[in-house]
Design a protein that fits this description.
With 524 residues, the protein is of the alpha+beta class. The chain has 16 helices and 12 strands. The radius of gyration is 30 Å and the shape is globular. The N terminus and C terminus are likely disordered.
Length: 524
């Protein structure tokens, strides 16, 4: 053996002995540290000694008070104080696609596209938007099924200027033929875009309401049907505005504004200045205040869902929504709150989730469905609540060959809602709902929307503390009772994509008679 090789071996052995010695010394040191720490640090279950008592701040009840004033013509003005330099003001109207029975379906879709266009006092193109931006403002308009909202967030010094613009936008829009033609093109483009998107949420939400309420009231399509695009013109739109944008259906709200100042501005621009249709000869049509009748049924659209663009490797999915009649917001308040807790307890989501953990991954649809069946891509529970109706449903998706199994899995989970509830999942759902409520109410625009919707529905706004207590008062028995009540209602089924393996609705309804089972119930 050469001297170089023997020297190398001796060097390697010496280094190995050093490493072993250093490792043993470090283990002894860490052991001593652990032993010393275990005696010095108190357990987390005991408070630290020698600390002063904690003094919690108490909320000022006057700071969350909602002031409401009814003007001479019937318009209600609601405000709530808020800190900061900016405010949110806007208008909520009892209007939406549910009131379109006497009109071509799609009027509100047009009005949403025409929002913040030219008005009597702001006739130029984009003049309304330029005026709002002049006061550091942002504006938005949304037409839902039962409420239409126009809102703007701006510097609170310019509340009067913003209300002047909103008064013109709502009561004095010009709605020119060019603007109507532009709205038609936007609606056509939106329809074409929805048909090309792999995401199906907007279409499925629309279809499940149409199936549940048989195309009346809440079942009217929120998206303008293509056959109605050419039917809707300025006269129809103005006739709808005249009959629905009336004072007793309007609430003007503000968060972070002085109440008396807002009342004076509303009086000036919503009462003293007359609407544009007062000078036009338009037909008077009674408002359709029919109560929604939940019927149930099936809409099956056997079509080709567009794939995700690019080399994503994601499968082309078939989508299924199974729904039941739920609890309305007004009436049985405690049952409505219980239905919200049930929705959080079911939870769910997609198989792929951006961000860290903690987004409802302990809910039933995650634990019993998504974590168990690898072929299932999405399972999410939704609870749509309205003043006089409600719809609870689960949206799920999988590859076409699993559609039959998908129905069985989702139906069994809906049936399991009537079975026993683990105390831990029940308490977690209540805390999650309370946390979600408080987190959302930290945003000024959400406070505004919540205030407007409550005043439109009930005439007053319930304080967050009351809602938290209502959630706390929900019991396991309440959940099981309303779950059984929902299971007894007719079934609503919407399927889109390659759904050739979908069972008949009678077979799905028969599956609903199964008994609730445990956590897992077998493989498909």
């Amino acid at each position: 053996m050469s001297s170089k090789v023997s020297s190398f071996l001796r060097f390697k052995c010496i280094n190995q002995r050093k490493s072993i010695n250093e490792f043993s010394i470090s283990c002894q040191f860490s052991s001593k540290v652990q032993n010393s720490c275990s005696f010095q640090q108190p357990p987390l279950t005991e408070p630290l000694p020698n600390l002063p008592n904690i003094l919690y701040s108490s909320p000022n009840k006057n700071s969350v008070k909602t002031e409401i004033t009814k003007l001479s013509n019937g318009i209600r003005v609601a405000t709530e104080s808020s800190h900061g330099e900016f405010c949110t003001v806007g208008v909520g109207i009892n209007s939406g696609c549910r009131y379109e029975a006497s009109y071509p379906n799609g009027v509100n879709h047009f009005l949403e596209k025409l929002a913040f266009s030219s008005t009597v006092n702001f006739p130029g193109v984009n003049q309304v938007i330029d005026e709002i931006e002049k006061y550091n403002g942002l504006s938005d308009a949304q037409c839902s099924r039962d409420v239409t909202m126009y809102a703007a967030s701006a510097n609170r010094k310019y509340v009067d200027n913003i209300i002047k613009v909103l008064g013109d936008v709502i009561l004095r829009p010009k709605i020119t033929d060019d603007e109507v033609m532009s709205a038609k093109k936007m609606i056509q483009f939106e329809h074409d875009t929805l048909m090309l998107r792999p995401e199906q949420d907007i279409l499925l939400e629309n279809l499940v309401h149409m199936a549940a309420f048989k195309c009346n009231t809440l079942g009217m399509s929120k998206l303008c049907p293509l056959e109605n695009v050419e039917k809707i013109n300025r006269k129809i739109l103005m006739t709808y505005l005249k009959n629905h944008f009336v004072p007793d259906r309007i609430v003007v709200g503000g968060v972070g504004v002085d109440h008396q100042q807002l009342v004076e501005s509303v009086q000036r621009y919503f009462v003293e200045e007359k609407p544009i249709w007062s000078n036009e000869k338009l037909e008077t049509i009674a408002v359709d205040n029919s109560i929604p009748q939940y019927i149930g049924g099936i809409i099956m659209d056997n079509c080709e869902i567009p794939p995700f663009p690019g080399p994503s490797g994601l499968a082309v999915l078939s989508h299924l929504v199974i729904g039941l009649e739920s609890i309305p917001m007004v009436g049985k308040q405690q049952d409505f709150v219980a239905s919200c807790v049930l929705n959080l307890m079911m939870g769910g989501g997609g198989a792929f989730s951006a961000g860290g953990p903690g987004k409802g991954m302990y809910t039933r649809l995650y634990r019993n469905v998504l974590n168990r069946y690898g072929w299932l891509f999405n399972a999410t529970a939704y609870n749509y609540a309205y003043v006089d109706g409600g719809l609870f449903c689960i949206h799920s998706s999988a590859e076409p060959q699993y559609v039959n199994n998908l129905v069985k899995v989702i139906v069994q989970e809906m049936v399991n809602m009537t079975g026993s509830i683990q105390r831990e999942e029940f308490l977690r759902a209540k805390k999650q709902l309370q946390s979600l409520l408080l987190m959302n109410l930290e945003a000024r625009p959400i406070i505004f929307e919540d205030m407007i919707r409550q005043v439109l529905a009930t005439g007053y706004r319930k304080k967050p503390e009351e809602l938290l207590q209502d959630i706390e008062n929900v019991t396991e028995e309440d959940i099981i009772r309303i779950a059984k009540q929902m299971i007894d209602t007719p079934l609503t089924v919407v399927a889109r994509g390659d759904v050739r393996q979908l069972p008949a609705i009678e077979e799905i309804q028969e599956l609903m008679s199964m008994k609730p089972r445990g956590k897992f119930f077998g493989r498909f």
